Automatic annotation (TrEMBL):
<dbReference type="InterPro" id="IPR033985">
    <property type="entry name" value="SusD-like_N"/>
</dbReference>
<feature type="domain" description="RagB/SusD">
    <location>
        <begin position="328"/>
        <end position="581"/>
    </location>
</feature>
<dbReference type="InterPro" id="IPR012944">
    <property type="entry name" value="SusD_RagB_dom"/>
</dbReference>
<protein>
    <submittedName>
        <fullName>RagB/SusD family nutrient uptake outer membrane protein</fullName>
    </submittedName>
</protein>
<feature type="domain" description="SusD-like N-terminal">
    <location>
        <begin position="60"/>
        <end position="220"/>
    </location>
</feature>
<keyword id="KW-0732">Signal</keyword>
<keyword id="KW-0998">Cell outer membrane</keyword>
<dbReference type="GO" id="GO:0009279">
    <property type="term" value="C:cell outer membrane"/>
</dbReference>
<dbReference type="Pfam" id="PF07980">
    <property type="entry name" value="SusD_RagB"/>
</dbReference>
<dbReference type="Pfam" id="PF14322">
    <property type="entry name" value="SusD-like_3"/>
</dbReference>
<keyword id="KW-0472">Membrane</keyword>
Length: 581
């Protein structure tokens, strides 16, 4: 965990874009004190936090779960799920990147008061300083969350441990043998950081017509907007901080961790409700929130270039034109590599359009016509045999012995009988004669995640119908999400659920469907303490048969509900490895 002093010149090259900064000192070396008179240079420290966020691209960790496999034999998550996961080889590892980011963030927090952030405007220097602190505290709390999620776990002697808490930067004289703090201490430090962040940041970066009370009488509208206005959208805000707090509380309250923390389900529900109330409560559920990525929303996607977020998106990355996502995941007949293959396990999790699970006698499920009458999300998210896909609506046949789209036909064919459709823009054309690109962006936090977070926590705290101090219940949230999905109304299956346990199973399944392929399933299975070794299944379709069978075993052991610390870190004195690793 040793961290060296940053190379300020490298940061300026990466982030400043200002040629003046590149004027070298006598030996082309920079000192940390050089940031005091160079705000762009100083901001490089802060921006290191943003560029190291592990959510900037889709990771498709679903391949490590019962929801998907990959046809790429070298896929890290495939290797991990099939027995190659260790403290030396860990594709889920966050230790290196997160602690590097925290080092930079600690440095800016230590130095920001000495930086001349602005030389013009009324109170602008102080406001830029406030913004710098708020962003750094918020990012530090977020990276601590990633560390806990990936590396928190139980020690051999029965203690729930987190990671070493670092609130000051390290240098050559620092103690690099710090022990792990408890999980609870880490959670409380995250809350402290998030509270600090919220005290410095606006709810959103938007232009105002009147200076907020915090700065009233100190600055002008123009200068306030210069610092906290719309130009800075997608940086850390108090709204984002609130959502991070809810995610932290959900993790800590979950079965895998709640025996080692003081965080209870009602706190997780309260924290989520704070976000949802600012979004209009139930009325804020976006109508297109379950297909926000689609070419059906091309106009909306193209419009985010202005910095405005669609109704479904709380926080997102930058927009960009490309077709790599489609190249990786289109079927071979559409010139794709079909990398992520949804499993039969996931397909079976989609209910019928009447809302009943396919295992329920009232569902009307026909095993001989398994895709008929299903929840509309199945067709939106997964390509099944006979689906139409792509810019020209080509029919995809996954039957054995047909086209290259068929089961295991070529190395880029599906291994399960299914292809991923979710997240892809089907107005992308990969035909070499007419290739195009389309605009994409990656959400960091979607509102649907927070609605489902509230439903889970509220049900655990108060049951399906109680509301705590809020205006909506777990049942009402799930009812709205299922109605949006296209479940027939009235939703008789939802109405039939009366117990917390049955509602829990439904909420978990809705989360599985709504957040599929977005990097949640692996973490959810672990925090719920469910079976992480469920084998991945697929379907074999011929002209005369339809048979379900195993595709890939999941070679996990029970202790793997908690991820390992990196092997090299454990070699250091005082750093205890999680049990089993």
């Amino acid at each position: 965990m040793k961290r060296t002093i940053i190379n300020i010149l490298i940061i300026s090259l990466a982030f400043s874009g200002c040629k003046k900064i590149l004027s070298p000192a006598d030996e082309n070396n920079r000192e940390l004190s050089d940031i005091y008179d160079n705000a762009a240079f100083a901001e490089g420290l802060l921006l290191n936090g943003y560029v190291r966020l592990p959510i900037s691209n889709y990771s498709f960790t679903d391949v490590a779960t019962d929801d998907a496999v990959s046809n790429d034999p070298n896929n890290n998550y495939r290797l991990m799920a099939t027995g190659k996961w260790s403290s030396i080889s860990n594709p889920m590892e966050q230790w290196t990147g997160a602690f590097a980011a925290i080092q930079y963030l600690n440095q800016i927090l230590e130095q920001t008061d000495k930086v001349t952030w602005a030389t013009t405007g009324q109170y602008t220097d102080a406001m830029f300083n406030d913004r710098s602190k708020g962003e750094a505290y918020g990012l530090r709390g977020l990276f601590m969350f990633y560390l806990l999620q990936a590396h928190g776990g139980w020690s051999p002697d029965g203690k729930l441990l987190g990671v070493p808490i670092l609130t000051s930067s390290q240098n050559a004289q620092s103690n690099f043998k710090l022990p792990r703090n408890t999980f609870e201490e880490c959670v409380q430090q995250i809350y402290k950081d998030l509270d600090s962040a919220a005290s410095y940041l606006p709810l959103d970066f938007e232009n105002v017509s009147a200076v907020p009370s915090k700065y009233a009488g100190k600055t002008t509208v123009a200068d306030y907007n210069r610092v906290f206005g719309a130009y800075n959208r997608q940086r850390m805000t108090a709204r984002i901080v609130n959502a991070i707090r809810a995610k932290v509380s959900l993790l800590a309250a979950s079965p895998a961790y709640n025996q080692g923390t003081t965080v209870v389900w009602s706190k997780a529900a309260d924290d989520a409700a704070k976000v949802l109330d600012l979004n209009g409560g139930l009325a804020g559920i976006a109508a297109n929130g379950n297909y926000w990525y689609s070419s059906q929303n091309a106009g909306e996607i193209n419009g985010v270039a202005s910095g405005v977020n669609p109704a479904e998106i709380l926080w997102r990355g930058n927009v960009g034109d490309g077709n790599n996502l489609e190249k990786d995941n289109y079927p071979p007949s559409l010139y794709g590599s079909g990398r992520v293959n949804p499993t039969q396990n996931l397909v079976d999790a989609f209910p019928m359009a009447n809302g009943y699970p396919i295992t329920n006698a009232s569902s009307g499920y026909d095993a001989n016509n398994p895709y008929a009458g299903r929840d509309p999300r199945l067709a939106r998210y997964i390509v099944v045999n006979g689906s139409k896909m792509g810019p020209s609506g080509s029919t995809i046949s996954t039957k054995v012995g047909g086209t290259n789209d068929g089961l295991n036909a070529i190395p880029t064919s599906t291994r399960t009988g299914y292809y991923m459709r979710k997240l892809l823009r089907e107005d992308v054309n990969l035909n070499p004669a007419n290739t195009n690109t389309q605009r994409h962006y990656v959400p960091y936090i979607r509102y649907t995640e927070i609605y489902l977070l509230y439903a889970e926590a509220a049900n655990e705290a108060w049951g399906p119908d109680a509301k705590g101090t809020h205006a909506y219940s777990a049942r009402e949230i799930i009812a709205a999400i299922r109605k949006r999905a296209g479940i027939a109304q009235p939703d008789n299956y939802l109405a039939s659920i009366s117990s917390k346990e049955d509602m829990r199973a439904l909420i978990q399944n809705e989360r599985r469907l709504e957040l599929s392929f977005e990097g949640f399933r692996f973490w959810d299975i672990r925090r719920w303490q469910q079976n992480i070794a469920e084998p991945a299944k697929g379907v074999t379709i011929t002209s005369t048969s339809f048979s379900v069978g195993p595709v890939e075993d999941r070679l996990y052991q029970d202790f793997m509900h908690y991820g390992p610390l990196p092997y090299n870190e454990v070699l250091k004195e005082n750093l205890i490895q999680n049990k089993g690793w």
